[in-house]
From TrEMBL:
The keyword Isomerase does not apply. It comes from the Bacteria. It comes from Nocardiopsis ansamitocini. One of its GO terms (molecular function) is oxidoreductase activity, acting on the CH-OH group of donors, NAD or NADP as acceptor. This is 3-isopropylmalate dehydrogenase. PROSITE patterns: IDH_IMDH. The gene is leuB. The keyword Nuclease does not apply. Pfam families: Iso_dh. Coiled coil: none annotated. Residues 7-346 form the Isopropylmalate dehydrogenase-like domain. Keywords: Manganese, Metal-binding, NAD, Oxidoreductase.
Amino acid sequence: MSARTVKLAVIPGDGIGPEVVAEGLKVLSTVAPAHGLALDTTEYELGAKRWHATGETLPDAVEEELRGQEAILLGAVGDPTVPSGVLERGLLLRLRFSFAHYVNLRPVRLYPGVRTPLAGVAPEDIDMLVVREGTEGPYAGAGGVLRKGTPGEIATQDSVNTRFGVERVVRYAFAKAAERPRKKLTLVHKDNVLTFAGELWQRVVREVGAEYPQVTTDYLHVDAATMFFVTQPERFDVVVTDNLFGDIITDLGAAVAGGIGLASSGNVNPEAEFPSMFEPVHGSAPDIAGQGKADPTATILSVALLLEHLGYAKAAAQVETAVAEDLRARADSGAVRSTSQIGDDIARRVAEQG
Ligand code: NAI
Ligand code: MG
């Protein structure tokens, strides 16, 4: 097999970011050669340290360099010493917007052996794919403040929903639903109150859905959806939703599927006009940083999403199988392992699959 070289940008970031990214790269470099994949990695120092040193979050020149990469692996950014929002808006959201990451992909799956806080729920009951819109909604940055600091202060934060933006993410979600055994798509919104945006989402789902007669569609208000995530998670297959609702329900998804240490995500530009970015859902966890206590599994599962995006579905499946085996073994042994020991064990299980 002739090797293809993929240019991969690595942003370890802050806190536990570098620790978990090291394990993600360990597994990636173990699985890649057998699939004819060579990696040309470039590390970028972005996050709290750089902001403190230079005041920069994402210099234009770095954004330009990242644009020339094929994919990005990110640990986490954020630190208590940086004002809230600086790195989120200046780095993470800027990359999502600049690189048209209109699909924020968040699988929610309960692996065998993993403990869920839900009683009487089996792994086959929790297997969903949340497709969260990534570039619009209340996160678009529209709005403003008037008379700041006075009793008459006014703050508005508008939700931006374009026909184009809604349609492209809904199309992606239908295509995913059509590929999955259950072929079900649930739109989550709040169309009884957010009537303008909600009606647009409903209409687009109806229209695109007409092209996918094999996919069953369903609708839930976001408040009801949070209830059913807990009481009937088996209702969900593919979920498509707006940026803010998706942010909230996927934390709940992570909680019911075994915790934030396992939740993976991809910020995807499906057309590959720009590099897509893969990262664990969790943040920089300053409370456990530097102690080897972080679970690298979410990052390793994000590497599987990255492989799938790059067209290496078999390699992705190998990584996922190795993670599933490791999770099952954890349930049996109960031994406490360090971040790098977990990475070693998963890499070994990948290697054993040949
Ligand atoms: P967090 O996800 O960093 O931590 C929440 C809790 O989960 C903490 O108790 C932490 O120890 C634990 N935890 C997180 N990841 C873990 C892992 N892999 N293994 C074991 N335990 C883990 O969220 P928090 O505390 O709200 O935010 C900390 C910082 O991270 C903030 O600066 C925040 O802005 C930033 N952040 C960054 C994100 C990103 O880079 N995409 C996403 C979320 C938060
Ligand atoms: Mg979140």
